[in-house]
Design goal:
Elements lengths: L2 E4 L4 E5 L6 H10 L1 H5 L16 H14 L3 E7 L2 E12 L5 E8 L8 H15 L5 E6 L4 H10 L2 E12 L2 E11 L7 H17 L5
Parallel strand pairs: 5-6
Antiparallel strand pairs: 1-2, 2-3, 3-4, 4-5, 6-8, 7-8
Organism: Luteimicrobium album
Protein name: N-acetyltransferase GCN5
Pfam families: Acetyltransf_3
Length: 208
C-alpha cells in the first residue's frame, strides 16, 4: 500500500519498507543516533539472542501489516527515504482506534513532512479502515513533536504517567487525539488550510 500527498514544501510518500532500503536506512539511523536516541522506545526486558537483521526487520513489519493490527510505512520526501511512521494497536469493535508513532531525519525536520504523513495515515484509517479515532503519544519535553500535534489541531487528552519505556526508563507522555467526526473533510485538508493560511498571511494575500 502507498499513500501520497503534498505538504507545504513537497510531496510526501508513505510506502512499505523494502530490503533494498538497507543501506539508506542504516545510514539514516547512524546520522540521527543522537537526534532520535533520547525519544527511542525500548523494552524493559533484556533482549535474548542476536539482534534481528534488517531483512528480518522488514519481514516482521510485513507480517504485522498482513495481520491487520499495524500499518508500517517508510516516509519518503521528494524521493528520499527520511523516516518511518507506524499506525499500531489497530482495534475494531467498540473502540475502532489506532495509535500513530513516527520518526524523521533531523536534516528535513520542520518542513511539514511529519504533519503531512500523520494526516495521510489518519485519513486512511478513517476512510479505508473505518476507524473512529487515532491518537499520538508525545513526551512533554519533545518540542518538535508537540508542534506536530499543534499544527494538526489534535485534541490534548492529558498526561499519561510513566506511559512508555523510552531510552531505558518509564516516561510520561501527553496524549493527543482526533476522531473522524472532528475532521469530516479529512485531516490532510485541515492541515493544508493551516499552512496555506499561514503562507498567505506572510505574503499578504488570501488563499482561494
Amino acid at each position: 500500500m502507498v499513500l501520497r500527498g503534498f505538504g507545504p514544501h513537497g510531496e510526501v510518500v508513505l510506502r512499505p519498507l523494502r530490503r533494498g532500503d538497507a543501506d539508506d536506512w542504516m545510514e539514516l539511523r547512524r546520522r540521527n543516533a543522537t537526534w532520535l536516541g533520547q525519544w527511542e522506545a525500548t523494552s524493559p526486558r533484556p533482549q535474548r539472542g542476536a539482534a534481528p537483521t534488517f531483512g528480518g526487520y522488514v519481514r516482521l513489519l510485513a507480517s504485522q501489516a498482513r495481520s491487520g493490527t499495524t500499518l508500517p510505512f517508510a516516509i519518503e520526501y521528494e524521493g528520499e527515504l527520511v523516516g518511518q511512521l507506524t499506525a499500531s494497536s489497530i482495534t475494531y469493535g467498540s473502540l475502532c482506534s489506532a495509535t500513530i508513532g513516527y520518526w524523521v531525519s533531523e536534516h528535513v525536520a520542520g518542513r511539514g513532512i511529519v504533519p503531512t504523513a500523520v494526516a495521510l495515515t489518519a485519513d486512511h484509517c478513517f476512510t479505508a479502515l473505518g476507524l473512529h479515532r487515532v491518537e499520538v503519544n508525545i513526551r512533554p519535553e519533545n518540542g518538535p513533536s508537540l508542534r506536530v500535534a499543534e499544527k494538526l489541531g489534535l485534541r490534548d487528552e492529558g498526561l499519561r504517567r510513566r506511559y512508555l519505556h523510552i531510552n531505558g526508563r518509564w516516561c510520561d507522555h501527553r496524549s493527543f487525539a482526533v476522531t473522524a467526526d472532528e475532521a469530516p473533510d479529512g485531516l490532510l485538508a485541515r492541515w493544508r488550510r493551516t499552512w496555506s493560511t499561514t503562507d498567505a498571511g506572510r505574503r499578504g494575500d488570501t488563499p482561494s
